[in-house]
């Protein structure tokens, strides 16, 4: 098997393991075991667990299906925003609230520990917020959302509030926090 | 020194160490070293690191100065809510965004790992939300906030959104997320 496949296997397995068990809760061996590759091969591909973590943040941001959904102009912009958050709700609910979002988890766990990962997280926040802001701006353009607040501010607030709601949903093992988020977001903020 | 002082020293040190380094990022030895007590003494007082973690969540909720501030009826309720969040902003900013809130950090790191701690976190969320909701209800009573949404829903949404804003502030090492939170909370939600 060519080297780049081992590398990809480690990234795929790392994404799962690190979301489920946390960065500090999982070792290189957990990741290579999940990838089905020899432990020794890890350091042929990554300098450290931190380097893998940083790359995984980039992959998580880049390969996320949100872009396709938010860019689907066959739906009006407000409906696209709603569908985006409903899809997230459905995914986390289907996983019985057992795992979180890599972005939120790493932000809580690693902001004070790794500047490398922290900077990648900052890029991911900005990219995701910008994707949402483009749709908010479109809705401001067609008059379905007021232009009182800048689109990027509204979008960034919503993303932060969603990450917070997810923390609570996981603790309560219940979607009540998602329901509250949808109500306040679409009745009081995106108006 | 009587035994209960060692216990308290471990709790005090544990609170600091676990907020700074995370639950899985710190060992019992880090905590006893920070407490200045022999490592062996830990298990005279706590069954496990998990048991200490659960107790620390309770302590963090109980001894928090928010209750005094939210209960200070010399200020109108909306001002009290504002002062509450401004105080949190100031504390995290003064710490250069280097540490988070134990509630948010543990929610991200431990919801999937420890049911014991998860249940204590759920109680803390409920207590904190209820403290906020009492003040929201007071503001609804004097007409400064609309009664359209139930006080506990608004309060719970705000707490979740705040925990999310804090995650982003730590990643960005900047108070912009706090500024956005204050604007949206007090211009669009508590209205």
SSE blueprint:
The structure is a homodimer of 191-residue chains.
Chain A: H1 3-21, H2 28-35, H3 42-45, H4 49-62, H5 66-70, H6 77-94, H7 102-110, H8 115-141, H9 151-172, H10 176-189
Protein name (chains A, B): HTH-type transcriptional repressor DhaR
DNA-binding region (chains A, B): 27-46
Organism (chains A, B): Mesorhizobium prunaredense
Helix content of chain A: over 70%
- Topology as H/E string of chain A? HHHHHHHHHH
* Spatial extent as radius of gyration of chain A: 18 Å
Shape of chain A: elongated
Q: Give the end-to-end Cα distance of chain A, rounded to a whole number of Å.
A: 54 Å
Question: Could you give the count of β-strands of chain A?
Answer: 0
**Relevant CATH superfamily of the largest domain in chain A:** Tetracycline Repressor, domain 2
Briefly note the CATH topology name of the largest domain in chain A.
Tetracycline Repressor, domain 2
Q: How many domain regions of chain A? A: 2
Q: Class by helix and strand content of chain A?
A: mainly alpha
Which CATH class of the largest domain in chain A? Mainly Alpha
Mean pLDDT of chain A: 95
Seen as an oligomer or otherwise, the chain set is: homodimer
Low-confidence stretches of chain A: none
Structure, explained:
Chains A, B: GO terms for molecular function: DNA binding. Chains A, B: InterPro entries: Homeodomain-like_sf, HTH_TetR, Tet_transcr_reg_TetR-rel_C_sf, TetR_C. 2 copies of one chain form a homodimer. By secondary structure, the first copy, chain A, is mainly α. The first copy, chain A, folds into 2 domains: 44 residues, Arc Repressor Mutant, subunit A, CATH 1.10.10; 129 residues, Orthogonal Bundle (Tetracycline Repressor, domain 2). Chain A is built from 10 helices and no strands. The termini of chain A are far apart. In chain A, 43% of the residues are buried. The mean pLDDT of chain A is 95.
